[in-house]
Design a protein that fits this description.
Elements lengths: L13 E5 L4 H12 L3 E6 L2 H13 L3 E6 L5 H15 L4 E4 L14 H26 L9 E6 L12 H23 L4 E8 L5 H12 L6 H10 L9 H12 L10 E4 L7
Parallel strand pairs: 1-2, 1-4, 2-3, 4-5, 5-6, 6-7
Helix pairs in contact: 1-8, 3-4, 4-5, 6-7
This protein binds nicotinamide-adenine-dinucleotide.
The site of nicotinamide-adenine-dinucleotide has 28 residues, from helix 1 and helix 6.
Length: 272
């Protein structure tokens, strides 16, 4: 019988986490580094990204920073090359970078709709493509790997005021499954899964609360927060660490038979 209680180790693995200067990405990078992975912090926020990498190094981890806009093909080539050159491989990709737009559908501009698809969907597509090329047998890294895409509870059900965001996160959910099936059938050794967080207090989490109020969907931020919590059977707020632990599981060898899955981390809100 195998012992599943062994401590999760990512020793010898290299991980690229997009949008990881702050928020969930920074928390995911920190937990992967604590498990022994060398991590590449990638973001458009240069100062904050460098500080996040420095904090991981100060805590004894291995980390570097690269400026990357996930919508840019050239940036993807340079970021993957830097990961392999500076960290010695490319085994884990967390497609975490994302934005939200909170507005009633009839008030959502075409520019905002296209921007959210560009970052949240095109960014994930470019990441999956880069991972396939580099991680597959014969690729620049070549050892297979694990790709984790940040979708949302908003990729599972509809929310007033979040139509553009819901559309983008629903696309991430099925892009994940299609890639999982294809990479599996091609024998690439690359697993692909999505994580679906509920509301988590980060810059984006508080922007959602403010956005609901501005769109006339709540009296004030406290009442919007309460509305989210009342739909959470566990009756408690989620934290960035809850999401990071889910990412650690999917990144690690503890999930060798998990691909194309939707890991929902929301206190049960979408179950009720
Ligand atoms: N916080 C939540 O409640 C919540 C819930 C469900 C899903 N999510 C998802 O989790 C992910 C992380 O969210 P967060 O709460 O940490 O948000 P955040 O706004 O705190 O952080 C997002 C990061 O992405 C970066 N980013 C934005 N556009 C980018 C681009 N074009 N290229 C590279 N980086 C870019 C930002 O600079 C920032 O560092 C997102 O995909 C988000 O949709 C968040």
């Amino acid at each position: 019988m195998t012992d599943a209680s062994n401590e999760v180790s990512l020793a010898g693995k290299a991980a690229l986490i997009t949008g990881s200067a702050r928020g969930l990405g920074a928390e995911i990078a920190a937990i992967l580094a604590r498990a022994g992975a060398a991590v590449m912090i990638a973001d458009i926020l240069e100062d904050q990204g460098r500080q996040t990498a420095e904090a991981i190094r100060a805590a004894g981890g291995k980390a570097a920073f690269v400026r990357q806009d996930v919508t840019n093909e050239t940036d993807w080539e340079a970021t993957v090359a830097a990961t392999i050159r500076e960290l010695g491989g490319f085994d884990i990709l967390v497609n975490n970078a994302g934005i939200e737009v909170c507005a009633l559908l009839e008030n959502t501009t075409l520019k905002d709709f296209q921007r959210i698809l560009d970052i949240n969907v095109t960014g994930v597509f470019l990441g999956l493509r880069a991972a396939a090329k580099a991680m597959k047998p014969g690729g620049a890294a070549g050892g297979g790997g694990s790709v984790i895409n940040l979708s949302s509870v908003a990729g599972l059900r509809g929310y007033s005021g979040l139509s553009a965001y819901c559309g983008s996160k629903g696309a991430v959910k099925l892009l994940t499954k299609a890639a999982a099936v294809e990479f599996g059938q091609l024998g690439y050794g690359i697993r692909v899964n999505s994580i679906h967080p509920g509301l988590i207090p980060t810059d984006m989490g508080s922007a959602v609360l403010k956005g609901f109020v501005a769109a006339g969907l709540g009296k004030d931020e406290a009442s919007v927060q309460q509305a989210f919590e009342r739909g959470t059977p566990l009756g408690m707020k989620g934290t960035p660490a809850d999401i990071a632990k889910a990412a650690l599981f999917l990144a690690s060898d503890q999930s060798p038979w998990v691909t194309g899955a939707e890991l929902v981390v929301d206190g049960g809100s979408t179950a009720s």
